[in-house]
Amino acid sequence: MEPIRAIPSLDQLARDPSCAIGLSAATLAALQSQCAVAQSALAAAQLVAVQETPRVNQHADRTLDADGIATALGVSRRWVFRNKDRLPFIRHVSRRSVVASERDVLKWRAAQRP
Q1: What value, to the nearest 5°, has the Cα angle with vertex 32 and ends 27 and 38?
Q2: Does residue 59 carry a pLDDT above 70?
Q3: What is the mean pLDDT of residues 1-7?
Q4: How far apart are CA 52 and CA 56, in angstroms?
Q5: Residues whose CB falls within 8 Å of the CB of residue 94, separated by 6 or more in sequence, listed in order
Q6: Phi and psi dihedrals of 53, rounded to 5?
Q7: How far apart are CA 83 and CA 98, in angstroms?
Q8: CB neighbours (10 Å) of residue 105?
Q9: In whole angstroms, what is the distance from residue 8 CA to residue 31 CA?
Q10: Does the structure show a pLDDT above 70 at 4?
């Protein structure tokens, strides 16, 4: 009769895969089941972590005029025109008109606030 071997943990198997050699089919199936449960738990935790990560809305890419830029930044239209040369996202259309991508405005705003 063969001596009874201790069933290795998943940590032990990760360190030394050769300790799985000689285990019974039922033991191997149980270890595979444990591994599948651990993988599912890790995938669920990763999904939660990704959903909790703050992001700028990747789909919001409208073109904003001076009024839209002012609204997005919480400033006046006049402020936008006074500071247009210091704002990296603004494109000059004419002397009295500026536009910007909503995504760029939101990224800049997020970077400015600690």
Answers
A1: 130
A2: no
A3: 67
A4: 13
A5: none
A6: -75, 125
A7: 11
A8: 22
A9: 9
A10: no
Which position has the token pair 């032990």?
A: 12
For the chain, how far is it from start to end, CA to CA, in angstroms? 69
One-letter amino acid for residue 80 of the chain? V
| d(C-alpha 23, C-alpha 31), whole Å | 10
Mean pLDDT of 90-100: 91
Q: pLDDT tens for residues 99-113?
A: 999 999 999 998 987
C-alpha to C-alpha distance for 89 and 73, rounded to whole angstroms = 12
Question: In 68-101, which positions are buried (b, 16+ CB within 10 angstroms) versus exposed (e)?
Answer: bbbebbeeeeeebbeeeeeeebbeeeeeeebebb
Position 86, amino acid: R
Provide the residue type at 5 as one letter. Answer: R
